[in-house]
Write a structure and sequence with these properties.
single chain; 125 residues; mainly alpha; DUF7674 domain-containing protein; DUF7674
Length: 125
Amino acid sequence: MAHKSEISRLFLEVFPEFEAAYQEHISEYNEELAHVFFGDHVTSEVINQLKLEAFNSKAVKYFAFFEDIAKEADLYSRQVLTTTILTRIGDDITIFKEAQKYMGERTRQLSDEVELLIGRNDTTR
């Protein structure tokens, strides 16, 4: 079995319903590619929850996890959060604005840094 990154290990502890998708990912790539796993499976599900545009406990749980990663996890885990999850969430202004309702202080700070870095720091955000 491939070694799980810290973010994957922590994520699967909180969200065991993703274990089958994770195992399929390992089977497909013969290793863990956390950016791919989180991009293909996790971020897509988070975006689907945000599209509901109604306060939902699933989104609260995702963003609480992201806040923990933003505050306490290793550098690689924070890179997955910023470059894979937060960047993609920022691709759609409607999704981005909905996500902001759930972001904790540190997640919001990282998101703002991402948006500034890639040039999406206009006043409409």
